[in-house]
Design the sequence.
């Protein structure tokens, strides 16, 4: 499903994500890593569950708001459900293994100058590039 790309929307989106991460850090003293926010919200003992749930609720609501402004959202999922579930479990495992998710490391960790996040983000990016190369050029997929 092609998405219309413009430098303006990319810059605006990046600025909004960055501002939200900085605001959460300044106001709450928390890092805007989605896996950490979700993990905390699902924990048995969670004194700050309310802001975590509101943050997580804002993710799909933000997408719906943009869709409403643009005249609707077109969502097509052609991947079988078992593959989606397996992919989600692998992402969750990788997030635990990497000590955080891409948003936590890439947006917040690098912004704070964390060496661990810089290395983790470099590994994410290299792995993604290698995966695309293998799928498109060695396996012959159109992915």
Sequence:
């Amino acid at each position: 499903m092609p998405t219309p790309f413009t430098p303006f929307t990319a810059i605006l989106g990046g600025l909004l994500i960055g501002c939200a991460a900085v605001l959460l850090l300044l106001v709450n003293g928390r890092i805007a890593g989605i896996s950490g926010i979700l993990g905390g919200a699902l924990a048995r003992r969670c004194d700050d569950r309310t802001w975590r749930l509101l943050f997580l609720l804002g993710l799909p609501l933000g997408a719906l708001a943009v869709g409403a402004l643009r005249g609707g959202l077109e969502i097509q999922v052609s991947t079988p459900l078992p593959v989606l579930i397996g992919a989600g479990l692998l992402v969750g495992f990788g997030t635990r293994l990497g000590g955080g998710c891409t948003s936590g490391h890439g947006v917040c960790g690098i912004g704070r100058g964390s060496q661990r996040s810089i290395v983790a983000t470099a590994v994410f990016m290299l792995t993604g590039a290698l995966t695309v190369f293998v799928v498109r050029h060695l396996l012959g997929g159109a992915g």
Remarks:
- The radius of gyration is 17 Å.
